[in-house]
Amino acid sequence: MIARLTTRPAAARRVGRYMLAALVALAMIAAAQRASAQAAQPAPTAILLAKQIVEIKHIKDIYTPLVRGVVEKTRDMFMQTNFMWSKDLNDVADIELRQYAPRANELVDATARVYATHFTEPELKQLLVFYQSPVGQKALVEEPKIVDESMAYAGSWGDNLSQEVMVSMRAEMKKRGHDM
Asked: How many domains is the chain partitioned into structurally?
């Protein structure tokens, strides 16, 4: 069954970060696909190497919540039509999630193609060796933690900056005769 929306702030922030990461990744993929359509297509061996890198980095874990989010958003949209349909909509959403979950593989393949367009085959081989090494394995474990901590810091930093900008703008607007 699809997890119900939670009011826990930490869980919401985590899902928000995953959605943001997925959306950024989708934007990168779209830009890279446009660029790669104009550039030479990567060799099949480069794509296979890139696919191994994408798999070892567990990129699919980033995209899986995106599929869930799309299904839940669609369910919630229909729920606004008639909340009395909630049980049926939840049941149908569960079916849809099982049906569309494999579609995350399309994004995994697209990400592999993006890697293959940005790195040469020798570079991809070096990356693969790195990620298979002890320090590479540690990087795979620690990088998500680093991203989570960095995003949390960036969020609070942005909130603080927003407060500073609001105070500064109010002061400047007051100088111009606008009391905000």
From this structure: 2
